[in-house]
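Inputs:
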Amino acid sequence: GENVEQHPSTLSVQEGDSAVIKCTYSDSASNYFPWYKQELGKGPQLIIDIRSNVGEKKDQRIAVTLNKTAKHFSLHITETQPEDSAVYFCAATTNAGGTSYGKLTFGQGTILTVHP
Amino acid sequence: DVKVTQSSRYLVKRTGEKVFLECVQDMDHENMFWYRQDPGLGLRLIYFSYDVKMKEKGDIPEGYSVSREKKERFSLILESASTNQTSMYLCASSLGQYSPLHFGNGTRLTVT
């Protein structure tokens, strides 16, 4: 099955700096890569996603890049703010036999702390 | 806005008890999932369901079962709770393969 490795496990930055979180996956058939943010006491929430036919996607201060050859993808957050402090999870999924559902495999999570 | 509601925020149970974790979603989603979250291990899939009365094993189904009698409700059952099942349990629903997972706020289960 799919295996997703995420690094670093913790990341501490100053407000205004950039933050980068990296993930690698094992299944070359994986074709969808979402990122989730989990704030304290809440469930994870999707912040950005990318499909395998795209190399980069941006949404305001966040961007995701995908390198299919190397089987890794990264989350970039620019101009970090204290409210960006949270746990971030990457994930990967394959088209499970052409069914309408996807089985996501998550990374281990990164605790991001942005210091004012 | 999609709402996924988990019946309990915190639960404390004794070893050997049968435990039910309930989850309800209000957006008519086909797919529902149960994940377990442990520090350093991320979210691991226990079971999922893509239709009423249908269920599929995830990556760590041992010691768990599920029930989906109605489209909006997905229950996780611990037949005989053990201390190694102490964890945060997250329920989620989605519309389809490339649709976002909508998570509940989780149930923190402690088995003593």
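Residues 13 and 24 of chain A are 22 Å apart (CA to CA). Flag for discussion at group meeting.
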